[in-house]
Amino acid sequence: MSGGGADRLSDQITIALDAMGGDDAPQIVVAGANIARRRHPDVKFLLYGDEKEIAELVSKQRGLDEFVEIRHASEKVEPDDKPSQIVRSGQETSMWKAITSVKEGDSDGVVSAGNTGALLAMAMLVLRRLEGIDRPAIASFFPTQRGETVMLDLGANIQCDARNLVEFAIMGEVFARTILGINDPTIGLLNVGEEETKGNDALKLAATLLRDLDLPGEFVGFVEGDDIPSGAVDVVVTDGFTGNVALKTAEGTARLINAFVRETFRNSFWAKIGYLFAKPSFDKLRSRSDPRRYNGAMFLGLNGVCVKSHGGTDAIGFATAIGVAIDMIKYDGTALLKTNIERLDPEILRPQSAVAN
Asked: In sequence order, what DSSP letters do the residues of 105-159 get, joined into one string?
């Protein structure tokens, strides 16, 4: 089930779903699939997991049975399973079988809300890395003052060298094009200052390489933490440690502000009256910052589309993650990434293993 370019838009897409992954699986997976099939009526689903349990849930979702095929998996990946163990003994899990369906051509992409480490480890083992990519990265998008911004890596790679950051920039640029529809994304390296003299050696070298590369997007240099919510650039590039801390800090800050707002309007009778007048505006704010609208982190740099949904999301959020996978498939994000890599000097993106040899 592969295709390229404009032809891909007319092909039927099949998405494999790890039905047993997530805090409230398989309920939110099945319900999310039903929401997604209404948004994307040209998409079919392969649901991997407990056949009896899934079938019962599908029967309760009107019209969904015509869009799904259930494939039994006797085991599932638990939240506390170690990736090193699960890749050795997890071949019968719903997660493994869903990923394998992409490799075998039964599906065009996979979505799971399960154990992040296990999903990444399995995907790397089964789907393999794209040629020229040393380390896959986790990328997602979130709201800013200017629209949406992509950030990567969000936790797959704790320590990175200059070449890794260059890879992330290339992959993030493709993600911004395919998911956000930005024709010429601007790219920035997250640093402690915008001056060229600041930052560690990896950041400085990555900046030098990116300035010399003929990227489809525009590299603008270093950006700081407060540039992220302002939307100063379309793609923010950083190592997985910094990216994950920044993401979790932003999520925590959003929850804190919402708590402050609720507390403020509960303080007095007149505050509650004021809230009634302001409610339409607050509803718009709540919708704009709803994390379910931005659910779906893409594992970039693999030979296949693999999307990680937040484990604690609901059906609406899971449907959004499915939408991320569909867009990457429809607009040939993986093929575009391959093309961009092939255009570059192979010495820059040569994997570490090749350099060592």
From this structure: TS-SEEEE-S-HHHHHHHHHHHH-BPTT-SS-EEEEEEEETTEEEEEE-SSS-SS
Here the tokens at position 98 are 């869903």
Q: Kindly report the three-state secondary structure assignment for every residue of 229-243.
A: HHCCCCEEECCHHHH
The residue among 354 and 196 whose pLDDT is bigger is 196
Our CA angle for 20, 118, 179, nearest 5°, is: 80
Angstrom distance (rounded) from CA 70 to CA 101: 13
Q: Which residue has the tokens 């890395």?
A: 129
SS3 of 102, please? helix
Q: Could you tell me where the DSSP H helices lie in the chain?
A: 7-10, 27-39, 51-59, 83-89, 94-103, 116-127, 162-180, 201-212, 227-230, 240-265, 269-288, 315-330, 333-342, 352-356
Locus of tokens 């800013």: 144
Tell me which residue has tokens 């010429």: 184
For tokens 């950051």, name the residue: 165
What mean pLDDT comes out for the span 139-163?
91
Gap between the Cα atoms of 85 and 256, Å rounded? 37
Using alpha carbons, list the distances in angstroms from residue 149 to 120, 164, 178, 232, 317.
Answer: 23, 20, 13, 9, 18
User: If DSSP codes are grouped into helix, strand and coil, which group holds residue 67?
Assistant: helix
Of 27, 100, 103, nearest to 60 by C-alpha is: 27
At residue 344 the predicted structure's pLDDT band, cuts being 50, 70 and 90, is: low
At residue 194, the 3 state secondary structure works out as: coil
Two structure tokens written together for 282:
């607050």
DSSP secondary structure code for residue 75 in this structure: B
One-letter-per-residue 3-state SS of 278-291: HHHHHHHHHHHCCH
Please say if the pLDDT value at position 65 is more than 50: yes
Give 74: exposed, middle or buried? Use CB within 10 Å, 0-12, 13-18, 19+.
exposed
User: What is the pTM for the complete model shown?
Assistant: 0.85
How far is Cα 345 from Cα 58, in angstroms, rounded to an integer?
Answer: 50
d(CA 3, CA 184): 24
